[in-house]
């Protein structure tokens, strides 16, 4: 018989059982117990299945990356603490000092910042180019170019990237890294068009409920082996609970994407006729600059993001936001189950230099609508009331 201190400390025993749970369990543990050194060496070497330390691997990490990889057409993946963590793991596993990266000019603001920091601190050269000008992309390639970075659908103007053309330009020696956060694998699988690594901020559509901070990259076995090493050494690992929540979110991803696409298409068509609206950015509209690419790559799987340009700037948009709240709140993120609005020039692209922001087309009069699961007519009425002139 042990003393109370020992009994309490060693509690929490789960008896073995042969019936698996209907839903995945959550493995909130720092480490996994092993009988001894020999068994540890077998698991460490991969000769025996198992886990030993959550920073290295955890059942929830494995379940989540397995599901995302399958959705994207790959077999391997790495979960990270955020989308930026996933980007860091991917890039730092490929480039070194003196190497060169070609990146889309129209890119998420933090991606732009990360690459500039990489250039300043580690002398990795970066060239930002307009992906709509393929000749400029070709001219940007150097012998030292090791990676090309783009978004399948850009944030926030929803420009669809010609991935086949980029793959052809990149050849076989340049790693093509594609951010598929906006489109999701329900919209496009970049691997089908030559992407080597696909990256997501899983906080967005993959999870879909606005309650996790998580990133993931998927790719081939060798690419993910290197990315996993970067993740481990830079401490970019994801939390098991976040992975569990996102795994649950994946179960409804196709249903959610179909719903938001249907509603967004209706809203975009209506907004395009609104007297207060100067321009609507949605790839399903024939007026969009990359509508032809949307027809090729996305077809009718267009997603739930709309960007709206009005006359005026931050003050006018702030008035609209206050009218929309609390029904449609301002939120500096996207792809929640509920509809939200954001202001790219003051959030996602705020810290870009003004000239770089302008080059992306992110002007003071643009706000972004992340369409959720609500009814179209309710959203239309709320937007109509908010857009009405004061």
From TrEMBL:
Membrane spanning stretches: none
GO terms for MF: carbon-sulfur lyase activity; pyridoxal phosphate binding
Gene Ontology CC terms: cytoplasm
A Gene Ontology biological process term: transsulfuration
Highest taxon in the source lineage: Bacteria
Keywords: Lyase, Pyridoxal phosphate
Modified residues (N6-(pyridoxal phosphate)lysine): 204
Lyase in keyword set: yes
One Pfam family this sequence matches: Cys_Met_Meta_PP
CDD domains: CGS_like
Cofactor(s) demanded: pyridoxal 5'-phosphate
InterPro entries: Cys/Met-Metab_PyrdxlP-dep_enz, PyrdxlP-dep_Trfase, PyrdxlP-dep_Trfase_major, PyrdxlP-dep_Trfase_small
UniProt record similarity statement: Belongs to the trans-sulfuration enzymes family.
PANTHER family: CYSTATHIONINE GAMMA-LYASE, TRANS-SULFURATION ENZYME FAMILY MEMBER
Name recorded for this polypeptide: Cystathionine gamma-lyase
Organism, as annotated: Planctopirus hydrillae
């Amino acid at each position: 018989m042990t003393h109370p201190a020992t009994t309490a400390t060693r509690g929490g025993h789960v008896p073995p059982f042969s019936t698996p749970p209907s839903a995945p369990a959550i493995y909130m543990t720092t480490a996994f117990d092993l009988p001894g050194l020999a068994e540890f060496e077998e698991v460490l070497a991969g000769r025996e299945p198992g886990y030993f330390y959550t920073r290295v691997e955890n059942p929830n990490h494995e379940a989540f990356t397995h599901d995302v990889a399958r959705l994207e057409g790959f077999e391997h993946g790495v979960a990270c603490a955020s989308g930026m963590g996933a980007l860091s793991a991917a890039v730092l596993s490929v480039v070194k000092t003196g190497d060169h990266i070609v990146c889309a000019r129209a890119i998420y603001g933090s991606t732009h910042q990360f690459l500039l920091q990489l250039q300043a601190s580690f002398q990795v050269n970066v060239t930002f180019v307009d992906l709509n000008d393929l000749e400029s992309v070709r001219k940007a390639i150097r012998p030292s170019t090791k990676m090309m970075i783009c978004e399948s659908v850009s944030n926030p103007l929803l420009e669809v990237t010609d991935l086949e053309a980029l793959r052809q330009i990149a050849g076989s020696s340049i790693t093509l890294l594609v951010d598929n956060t906006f489109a999701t694998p329900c919209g496009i699988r970049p691997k089908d068009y030559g992407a080597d690594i696909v990256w997501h901020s899983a906080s967005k559509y993959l999870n879909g409920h606005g309650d996790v901070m998580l990133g993931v990259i998927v790719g081939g076995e060798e690419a993910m082996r290197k990315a996993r090493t970067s993740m481990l050494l830079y401490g970019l690992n994801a939390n098991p609970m976040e992975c569990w929540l996102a795994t649950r979110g994946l179960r409804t991803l196709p249903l959610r994407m179909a719903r938001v696409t249907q509603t967004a298409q209706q809203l975009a068509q209506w907004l395009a006729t609104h007297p207060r609206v100067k321009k609507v950015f949605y790839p399903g509209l024939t007026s969009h600059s990359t509508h032809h690419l949307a027809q090729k790559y996305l077809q009718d799987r267009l997603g739930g993001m709309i960007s709206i340009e009005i006359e005026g700037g931050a003050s006018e948009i702030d008035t609209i936001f206050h009218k929309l709240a609390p029904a449609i709140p301002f939120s500096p993120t996207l792809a929640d189950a509920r509809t939200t609005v954001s202001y790219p020039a003051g959030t996602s692209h705020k810290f870009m230099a003004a000239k770089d922001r302008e080059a992306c087309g992110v002007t003071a009069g643009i706000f972004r609508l992340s369409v959720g699961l609500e009814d179209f007519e309710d959203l239309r009425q709320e937007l109509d009331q908010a857009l009405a002139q004061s």
